[in-house]
Amino acid sequence: MFITHVILTGGVGSRLWPLSRKSQPKQYLEIFENKSLFEMTVDRNSHLADKVMVVGNVDNHHLSGRVMDKTKTTYLNIVESTPRNTAAAIAFAAFASNSDDILIVTPSDHIIDEMENYNKAINEAILKAKEGFIVTFGIIPTKPETGYGYIESKGDRVISFREKPNERTAKEFIARGNFLWNSGMFCFKAGVFLEELKQFQPDVYEKSKIAWETSKDGFLDLDLSLQIPSISIDYAVMERSKKIKVVPASFSWSDLGSFESVYEYLVSKGHPIDANGNMSIGCIIHTAFLGLRNTIFVHTDTANLILQKENSQDVKDIYNELEKQNSDLLN
What we know:
globular
C-alpha cells in the first residue's frame, strides 16, 4: 500500500484575471514569497506521501513539469486532452493506482499555513481512509464567506453539502456552528473511490477507464475524453455515498480564489496598503489613491483592473465577457 499525493492543476483562476491567464494560471504565478502555489503544494505534502501524481491538461502540464524539475520530484504525469471536471480527473489517478493505495487529493492553487495542524488532519484522514471511508476536509470557518461551499456536519459525520451561499445564508451557517468550509481536498483508497463512482456514475467510471487504459505515456485521447460526462466529485460521489467522513480542520486555509483573499494574504505578509486600505498589485511605479477605500489596482503589461475589494467575486463576469469575445487578453 502506497500513499500517493494527487495534485489537481486544471483551474484557470478566472476570478484572478488579469494576473491569471490561460497561458499562466494562478497556481503557477510566483507571487507568493517568490514561489508559486503549485510549488508550495508540492513542498507541503512531500513528506506525507510515497508517490506523487499530477493531473493536468495539455495547456499547462509543461508548467507543472518545470516545478517538478525545480523541486526534483519524481511523479506520474496524467495529461487531460480536455477538461472533464474533478470526478474524471480523480478517477484517472485512481485507475493509475493499486486498489489499496491511499490517495491524498489536493488542488494546486490553495494556500495553507499552520503545518502542525495540517499534518494532524492529513494523518487523521489516512486512518479513516484505511478503514474504507472517503474523507473530505472541512475547514473551521473564520467568517461568513460567500465564495466557498459548506459542509454541514456533526463530529466526523457529514449531514449535507451546501452550495456557495449568499451573505445572509453564510451568516446563518456561522451562527449555527456546525458548518465547515468545503476545502475540495479528499483522502481515500483508490479502489473504494472507484467502487462508489461505478455505483453512482457508471458512465463516468466506464468512459474514464477506457480513456485511461488507452492513454499513451499519461496523455489521454481527445475523442475518448469528450465522451466522459463532465461532473464534479461532489455531485458524482460525495453527496451520494454512505462512506463519507469529514475531518474538521483548524489549519489556516484559503483557495485564493478572489482578489479579496489575495489581498488578505498579501496584507498578512506585509504587502503595503495606504491609510484607506487601498492596494496596488503588480505595479512598480508609485500609485496613489484619492477618495477611494478598499480599492485594488491590478497592473499587468496588457491589462489593468481596478476593483472594490468587496466586488472580487464579480471579476469572473469580466473574464466570461472576454471569453465570449474570444479575446487575446485571456491568453
